[in-house]
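PT: before anyone asks, these are the final sequences, not the draft ones from last week. 812 residues across everything. Please model them as a single complex and drop the result in this thread when it's through.
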Amino acid sequence: MRKWLWTLMVLALVFPAGAAFGETPQKGGSIVVCQPAEPPGLDPTANTAAAIDRVVYANLFEGLVKVNSNGDLVPGLATQWTVSPDGKTYTFKIREGVKFHNGEPFNAQVAKWNLERAIAETTVNPHPEYFRGIAKMETPDDYTLVLTLKEVDALFLIHMAEGDAVMLPMKGYEDAKSNPIGTGPFKFTSWVRGDRVDMERFDGYWNPKLPYLDKLTIKFIGDASAQIAALKAGDIDVIGYILAPEMAKEMEKDPRFKVYAGSTTAEVIMSTNNKAKPFDNKMVRQAMAYAIDRKAVVDLVMFGYGTPIGSHWSPSTPYYVDLTGKFPYDPKKAKELLAQAGYPDGFEATIKLPAIYSYSKRAGEVIADMLSQVGIKLKIEIVEWGQWIERIFKKKEYELTMIGHSEAWDIGIYANPEYYFQYDSQEFRDAYANALKAPNEEEKAKWFGRCQEIIAEDAVNGFLFSASGLPTMKANVMGWWENYPTIALDCTEVWLKK
Amino acid sequence: MTRYFAKKLFILLVLLFLVSIAVFSVLFILPGDPAQIILGINATPQTLANLRAELGLDRPFLEQYLDWIQKLLTGRGNRSINYDMPVYDLIVSRLAVTGPLALLAMVFAVIISLPLGIYAAKNQNRPADVLVMFFTQLGLATPEFWLGILLILLMSVKLGLFSAGGFPGWTSDVWGSLKALLLPAFALGVIRASILTRLTRSSMLEVLREDYVRTARAKGLRERTVIYVHALRNALIPVLTIMGLQLGQLLAGAIIIENVYYLPGLGRLVFQAIGQRDLPVVRDIVLFMAAAVVLVNFIVDLAYASLDPRIRLE
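LR: through. Structure below.
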């Protein structure tokens, strides 16, 4: 019996979910997936909203490079790429026979045009800096794209796999916000504003075996209990992102559904204004780090569905260093540090919590309680999102706040002293520059690891946890991603078991 | 009558003009840069500037205001930033949900409240009256979102008679669309019926004590005629006032119930647009809502006149 169990466990590890026990995907069928936020337009190259990528990334639009369910960079519209020994020249082999949904062919010239558009003077791409490092773009033939960078950029390929770098057609790109045309496995049929986006199988997809589904609908349901009611009533098949964590236990018990407690790229942090008194004192920040019981935060805020973190790096991202042991929960030590810093009786401060994120409000309350145990009295202020952007993010009028940073590979924000943390460290900037210039994996791991250590040691922010995406679906939905290593609800290989 | 109408119309236009200035100014000084919200917190300054220019946010106040009014008057010029379509079309499509929802809710409210209110008044202080009063008290104390959720749990999750929410659209499925509105309209209607029942009852009781009702009874009219022909007409005036306010409110959007049933209605649209700083949408809808409330009140004024001819003379 025990042997059997072991075999099963090994099998479950070796084969990804859905493929376990050698099940072959079945074709046909349609699914309805819900996510809370309706995207502001459907063009990921003109707006950073995560809601857009969750609808279109990998479903409608593809880039040269893709992120797969394990977080690896895999061929998308490029079949392979090589990097020159000096790390500056990338040669992409462009996939042949790729067509846009409107019939336009995709080739190296189209790819070049897309990148030129992203870095043009008039660009509205939110992240032109991802591609500004390109010094030269060449297309020696229709299916080869050679990009030469000004300097080595360790994150270049990663950026090429993000929503900002998806490929649009040269004709029909203007309406991408409301009528997106891409190369993905599904083509756009309609967007019923306020309700759903409908997509259907693209018969001209470059991989003739995919997708398995005939129709894909993404529905927008903001209210957590409405999502669950819709799933139970059979109106939707999948809650793609994100089940209210307090409901997860109940849904797990129900044999009709399954819940994946995988990871995401988001780090929930208590952002700290490093220029505001008394948070400009490193000892105060470290004292707060000691005063926070991260395990309890995860239990109370996420009902256990999350992983404590010790720095600004998600456990699902490569080069992760576990720094949760750096400041273990120790209120006594926190008090001592506060006394050393000149606050033996603690102090009062305000934490501003954005109203749109329930996890943020809940975490704020929990943290306020924990900090009060060591004498730091927090006043809680709930702030509307637009206000948050204006007052906290732009004008830096805050002491503490609570927010999830959902982008992967975003530790570079600590290198910018103007960023709303107002963290200014030459040591970090040097380490980050070294990481970007790292010529090989070993150096990358070393310097990205060092970056994580520096900000952890400086306790720049309260590093709390990486949240779980908690996708929840009917038991017959197969091939759904367990982890979300990138911001997407990729349905390319999702299928229905009949 | 024409003068009465013209006067009301003039007031309506002045009111809308004032509302337009108020709405525009408030949104103009409201913190929260739309460009920043669209592009996210890591956007570069250049991209932000480009987008602001594209959206016309870099122009002075008066220029932006006049541009807005001009586009408003000439048709579909104002476009939603996020939905990338004319706000006019957006409002029309959302009204196709919110309008019928509001009307259906009022229908429920009226068919529940009028008979119950009259019945309670006729049986004042008897057990039936006490029972009706008890239930209306309960109705008044019930939040509508909670009733909405209970209805979903019972009718959708347990019995499977209705879908738990959403809206298929009138063009693709008329019966399905109507069905999708039934539960939320009922939830909205029941709560409003509680107020209307109490109002009908008390108003009815007051009228039944009037001299002319005694006269009507004295001259031997049947009780039914006394109540439905003589008393009800006069008793309805305060009820109608409240109904008008309720309808205006419902047209302005039942934000919470639209979220519970994820209906693509006007309330949810404006709620979302405020969060995303889709300013053209917020401006036009707030103006539209103001117009709707004023218009409904105008219609109620006209209805008074037909119920009570004395009002016309004043």
